[in-house]
Request: fold
Amino acid sequence: MRIIIKIGTSTLAHATGMLNLRKAERLVHVIADLKNAGHEIVLVSSGAIGIGAGKLHLKQRPSDVPTRQACASVGQCELMYEYDKLFGAYNHTVSQVLLTLDVVDKEERRRNAVNTLEKLLEMNVIPIINENDTVATEEIAFGDNDTLSAIVGTLIKPDLLIILSDVDGLYTMPPADHPEAVKLDLVEEITPAIIEMAGGSGSTLGTGGMATKIEAAKIAMEHGFEMVLLSGADPEEMYDVIEGKSVGTRFRKRT
Reply:
C-alpha cells in the first residue's frame, strides 16, 4: 500500500511546544515497521511552528506572521533533525519537502513536485512534507496540514490517508463537553450533518480542528482514496487500520 500519514502538532509536541520525545519515538517505531513490511510511506508533519515557539520559549503560537515564520525556521531544523535521527536508527532515509499552494496550482511546478515525490518513493526514501511556513503568505498558504495531506494525496494517489490527531475519531458532538457523544466508525458521504459536527482548533500550538479534517476527508473521497481519522496517542492502531479493522473513523472512498 501507498500510505500518507499526517502527524499533528498535538501528537508530536508537549503543551509547552517542545518535542515529545517519547511519543515521537513510538510513532517512528510503528511507521518504520510499516515501511519494513513493504508499504510506501509519505509523512505530512506539522509541528515546525509549535516546536520553534517552544524552543524560543514562547508560551503559545504567535499571532503575527513574521514571528510565526521565524518559529517555523527554527522548528523545521529541530523537526527534521529528530526525524532523521529516529528513522536512521531503523536504517530508513528521510527527505524534506516543503510546499506552498502555488506549487500545486501551477501545472509545471505541480508536475515537478509529483516527479520528485515519485522518485523519492522509488528510491525507498520516506518524504517528510510540511508547508513552507517560513515563506508562505496568505495567497500561497494551504493554511493547515490536514488539507495539505489530502492535496498531496491528489498528487501521488495513495491507497490510504491516515490523519493522527488528539481525538480518536469523529463524534456526533465534542466529546470533551458532551459525555453522551457517539463516535462514528464509518462515514460514506460528507453531508451537512457531518459538517455541523466539526468544531474549531483544539490546540494553542496547532492550526487544525475537526473542520479541516472533514475538508481533507472530502478531498480524499472525491479523489478515490480512503481516509482514517485516528488518535495519535496509540500509534499501534495504524496496524489495525491497514488490516481493515474498525478503529478511529474511516471515510470511505467513492466507487
About this structure: The chain has ten helices and ten strands.
